[in-house]
Amino acid sequence: MLALGSTVLIPKPGQDKSHLWVIVTAVNPQNGEVIIVNFTTQRPHSDKTLVIQPGEHRFVGRPTVVFYSDARFVKLAFLEAAVNQGIANQHDPLDPALLRRVQAGLLASPLTPAKIKTAFTQAQQQSQC
């Protein structure tokens, strides 16, 4: 079962390449959605709000960034179905310290879509109640 901090390796449509996506919120009980962000190889033009070094997660073998501009909402049931059908693969969860850094970066990055920041902030407030 996927939850906050879980990671899923999802193939890019039409390519042999996959990205590691991280669930950064608990599931929204009203609509079944979570917010996810993905890890991608650091490039000169990358958003460097959060750079993850090799060894910080088993998947990361070279300097990697969180692609905050591609953050999105997804139904948790959709992710779980993709894993159950073999379309996507569950990977090691993030350790709590790295998850907190990824979450902090979501709010800090100037490239995170405003609607994602707003929903993330609301989810954080609800989880503290």
Explain this structure:
28% of the residues lie in helices and 25% in strands. The protein is an alpha+beta fold and 129 residues long. A hairpin with a 6-residue loop joins strand 1 (7-11) and strand 2. The chain is built from three helices and seven strands, in the order ββββββαβαα. The chain has one domain (7-127): SH3 type barrels (Roll), CATH 2.30.30. The chain is globular and about 40 Å long. The model has no long low-confidence stretch (mean pLDDT 94). Strands 1, 2, 3, 4, 5, 6 and 7 form a seven-stranded antiparallel β-sheet that branches. It starts with 6 loop residues before the first strand and ends with a helix.
Give the arrangement of secondary structure elements:
Elements: E1 7-11, E2 18-23, E3 33-41, E4 51-52, E5 64-66, E6 72-75, H1 76-84, E7 89-91, H2 96-108, H3 114-127
Antiparallel strand pairs: 1-2, 1-7, 2-3, 3-5, 3-6, 4-5
Summarize the structure.
28% of the residues lie in helices and 25% in strands. It has helices spanning 76-84, 96-108, 114-127, and strands spanning 7-11, 18-23, 33-41, 51-52, 64-66, 72-75, 89-91.
Features:
single chain; 129 residues; alpha+beta; SH3 type barrels; seven-stranded antiparallel beta sheet; 3 helices; 7 strands; 25% strand
